[in-house]
Amino acid sequence: MSHNTFGHLFRVTTWGESHGPALGAVVDGCPPGIRFTLDDLQSFLDKRKPGQSRFVTQRREDDLVKVLSGVMPQEDGSMISTGTPISLMIENTDQRSKDYGEIAKRYRPGHADYTYDVKYGIRDYRGGGRSSARETAARVAAGALARLVIPGVTIRGALVQIGKHRINRANWDWAQVSENPFFAPDPEIVPVWESYLDEIRKAGSSVGAVIEVVAEGVPAGLGAPIYAKLDQDIASGLMSINAVKGVEIGNGFGAAEITGEENADEMRIGPDGKPMFLSNHAGGILGGISTGEPIVARFAIKPTSSILTERRSIDSDLNEVDVRTKGRHDPCVGIRAVPVGEAMLACTIADHYLRDRGQTGRLK
Amino acid sequence: MSHNTFGHLFRVTTWGESHGPALGAVVDGCPPGIRFTLDDLQSFLDKRKPGQSRFVTQRREDDLVKVLSGVMPQEDGSMISTGTPISLMIENTDQRSKDYGEIAKRYRPGHADYTYDVKYGIRDYRGGGRSSARETAARVAAGALARLVIPGVTIRGALVQIGKHRINRANWDWAQVSENPFFAPDPEIVPVWESYLDEIRKAGSSVGAVIEVVAEGVPAGLGAPIYAKLDQDIASGLMSINAVKGVEIGNGFGAAEITGEENADEMRIGPDGKPMFLSNHAGGILGGISTGEPIVARFAIKPTSSILTERRSIDSDLNEVDVRTKGRHDPCVGIRAVPVGEAMLACTIADHYLRDRGQTGRLK
Amino acid sequence: MSHNTFGHLFRVTTWGESHGPALGAVVDGCPPGIRFTLDDLQSFLDKRKPGQSRFVTQRREDDLVKVLSGVMPQEDGSMISTGTPISLMIENTDQRSKDYGEIAKRYRPGHADYTYDVKYGIRDYRGGGRSSARETAARVAAGALARLVIPGVTIRGALVQIGKHRINRANWDWAQVSENPFFAPDPEIVPVWESYLDEIRKAGSSVGAVIEVVAEGVPAGLGAPIYAKLDQDIASGLMSINAVKGVEIGNGFGAAEITGEENADEMRIGPDGKPMFLSNHAGGILGGISTGEPIVARFAIKPTSSILTERRSIDSDLNEVDVRTKGRHDPCVGIRAVPVGEAMLACTIADHYLRDRGQTGRLK
Amino acid sequence: MSHNTFGHLFRVTTWGESHGPALGAVVDGCPPGIRFTLDDLQSFLDKRKPGQSRFVTQRREDDLVKVLSGVMPQEDGSMISTGTPISLMIENTDQRSKDYGEIAKRYRPGHADYTYDVKYGIRDYRGGGRSSARETAARVAAGALARLVIPGVTIRGALVQIGKHRINRANWDWAQVSENPFFAPDPEIVPVWESYLDEIRKAGSSVGAVIEVVAEGVPAGLGAPIYAKLDQDIASGLMSINAVKGVEIGNGFGAAEITGEENADEMRIGPDGKPMFLSNHAGGILGGISTGEPIVARFAIKPTSSILTERRSIDSDLNEVDVRTKGRHDPCVGIRAVPVGEAMLACTIADHYLRDRGQTGRLK
């Protein structure tokens, strides 16, 4: 991938910092003839929006998305894509630059301050600039478009671990995900996470998390070996999300612990006369190509480095300093990463759907 | 990345199947003026070569690499890169197509047979064709060139887990890696793995593994946010290796379990007057950009699905069949994946080195 | 190049139609640390702006460019690039959609109406939508940034032919270009073109033109053979401009008529002790790589197909119709193409400058 | 395009110099299921092969192409593409390196010797190395595959001008092209060119030429505005051919001389009830998208700079020298450029066919 662009035929270029006038995405290669409403995009942005519970940052950002190009407005208020680039813009509203004044020269440990300064010799310190998780709002808007590209695909995500507290997978219920502030699929974990995160929050601390994203209904055959494997591009997309430190597909790291007998998914002919897998250890991908089974990926988010405890650091004049990050931050950024992970999965699948249609002509 | 090409300025395009006349790589964008010998490439191929111990496949492939273009031969037998594409070719020698005859139509569970057939409608079943791990020989050759691009960088890998047997990190000694058939950095694990793998091998079974690859001496500032983050491209490269199901950087999935205080790497001014990190939980990358600390990545390899036990499957005529994979296979393909992981790390770093030099002009 | 993106390291993605809320460009890969003012961009947009003489369209568009990201605002009103994507936006103001109502279904001969409809099944007929020359405003803004990337390069353009009326090259004077409404370098052609274009304009007709663009001060060595030759990418950039039907470098088509003795540029050592070319038939490029001589390219623009004479055509219901294009159009679109050609040349050179610096590390 | 790769979905990467062991192309993205024979490729290489008349270089190269990967061999000797990269190799046989010894340090005027040395600091002087027209053999092989991608498309080329001697277009007869050593479509020009080229050849001189390439049967709708216009990519492909200095589509530079009334192609409903153009001034492309009419492009080739007359030049030690190019060269390289132009047109159309199928799903 190139700089700020993700994808090959369905290409998403994002731009913008947390404290400029706006941020956005240009979605290039979206097929023509797709009808959608602004709400089809906004509803996903609202899932990611801060300030929705005490467990996420209290910044207030309405994150209202505008569509600036690439569509023909229809009389009923909907739009139809024309095949030309769709420019999406989200204006920044709640900017408190003064919160960041004192870290203009100080490198916050665990943040990208130092590395941006080394690389570029200049850094937009306001809110983290381009390295701010706010950039992910543009991804979510683009991902909402990506979902419309393939009919019949359902893409959902859930939080499966906060700190050392994991969900019980036996309790998995997708319907629960929207019923709690954590996107938790297991209702029994909710009170555990609540009390744990309250503790973290009160201590001015933060903690990591693991998110699982699943795509159902993806046709078999997507993915372009060798260097555009579907799992490779999913890993690339998920690892591009701020603070992600690990990605796995299907059994993931667990596959290292087991034998070939345990890991391989056997096949049979299903009652509908079609090929059927008897298990899905592969997470829906074999040899870089989708099997038709649900695509299952997980990614680990580190605890945000914005914490109230003083940490040792340096500044850009090479003085040793102690840094304490004030401002309004997420005790667990992993929560709001759920819709972002869904968006990256959606973009990756849409891209490969178009690519496969191009190379093989199999699919409509 | 595009189909069979990896990289943006340092571009590696691989081609070839396990049972055609040859396979190879075209390395495009290699800087001019790099002097090397054939042995600089061959030595890495030899590390990956099969048949070197009883723990890897007994196929005999000499894997002799030829350089067909992009260099000026020198009188001392060395070559100097001219800046034009370097074409590397490895001829296939030990092909026993008959071993594969009976699986021409049968889908081996856990292999890419089914997905290739669905996607392409045709499949080179001989030795797995393009999905064979043999393709990684071309990567290793290209990776050997990539190593020559940045002076002062050391890239090494080691096996850290086979099945449930993990090394003791306190014993880590790079010098041990070449002293045992497992690339193990911990001499105490060697007898454990030996007896475990003998068992696996005799049972005609297989098992997964975890590999760690480390790059030392990488200058701070490499990586192009947002969609060409260094960790993203490392994840992309490692996940493109056959059988890889998970990738992590630094603390990886472990970062999900800890707090911001525990995870962030503090900084001080070192005795040399330069910025210094007091720890490396980040694995050498912050905000997608290298910190100057060692880059540390791990990846999980699933057990090969080529096992002697019969597994339920189907064939391309939609008959239900039982499949037992004969032929000469690796009880733990993870072992030979060590030099492949190194190669992908080397290619990624070389690419970002050239890209950074292009965009910022900081480095020589 | 990919869809709506031009360039490899210096990447320009444009978006927007003539009658949506805005259009713009995302410039990705601009080096950090470049200081500029809004006027550095606006001045080039003003050259392209319509309504400046009776020889161009009378639409009124202020074409005010906004910088939405990628810069740190400075106290003196200037900005410094940060190395992150620079989002440029130009709001559309003078939209008279009613002018286009009656051609919503009719295919204007010579326009892209028919081909867009065939390809996409839907078309933004308002002002030509994405195929409108208005898109070139975004290029000019991006080109203004590209000019800042390489110090010491001067990029200029001039109109050298309208209809059959060519300038006299012996009269070439760059200072004249800004002194007449045609960007003519030859003052003697001005009255000829005036009376000719008045005639064309009054007849509701249109006519073609040839533009020459020149880059001086380009260092030798830019261009990446074989498929990223500098002349190839210049041809690609110029041919991407609306209505361009031909591109030539140096002697161009004239080179077909002469002998090797006449065409090759001889060399000597100059008075400064450096290599010197005795002529520049090559237009500053040999083997796809810049020689250090001025880069000289010409491109031919067809007459706009928006004319008042009725022409035979069809509509999207496959009725035969006669079409007469009302609205405010350019009798010679070639005039306003001069700054656009300059912009594409600037973007191409900036891209190759960064690429060369990346691959060879020669240049600062 | 990137370095040595042409195309986006149908990607051709060429490698190799004129005097290394071999040269070749990796064709990545070729659709699966295409059946072809070696002769389907070889027949086009034979058209380009040197030594076929006294009007082209007398080097003897058999240019036998081998297919190293990406196909399943069939019992009848044909092959079927599998969708994986097709590696094509042509071994170099007739290498007389001694011919080039004395120009190892001398820059031949009009050649790429100087620019390669400036850029790379090293140059393969043997036969021009990578800048040799021999590289085009790999393009022709790849182009032969590209032709197989779209059913029903015919791609042909002809020489239309040598020096100042143009064909009479009224005499155009495609059947004549294979009947003379010039690929001339006008039998009356043949004796003119013969005597003119004999003169040029005997004088040790060279002359330029213009080639016209035409694609018939291309469906309407190919081309991806704005920066992947079909004409843009055709211009890019043709300008990438060695010695090309100009490219035009349809009326080309002639369009600059005429009015909108003369240039626009009117439309009617044809006898088959389908849209029909009444002329083809546009050369089959409007707004960057194919109209369904024949695609017509022309390109100008400069006279080769390898001539027997001494020319003033310098060497790499900055001495002034006189250079006379011995060796076996083409008096008019334009002749052998005909199949190369066809190949680039074929590759461009194949790429856009796959891209369009990917984005819009219209075509099979």
Automatic annotation (TrEMBL), chains A, B, C, D:
Cofactor: FMNH2
Function of the molecule: This reaction introduces a second double bond into the aromatic ring system.
Domain of life: Bacteria
Binding residue positions for NADP(+): R48, R54
Catalytic activity as recorded in UniProt: 5-O-(1-carboxyvinyl)-3-phosphoshikimate = chorismate + phosphate
Gene that this sequence comes from: aroC
Protein name in UniProt: Chorismate synthase
Single GO molecular function: chorismate synthase activity
Free-text cofactor note: Reduced FMN (FMNH(2)).
Species for this entry: Rhizobium terricola
EC id: 4.2.3.5
Binding site residues for FMN: R130, S131, S132, N242, A243, G287, K302, P303, T304, S305, S306, R328
Alphabetical GO biological process terms: amino acid biosynthetic process; aromatic amino acid family biosynthetic process; chorismate biosynthetic process
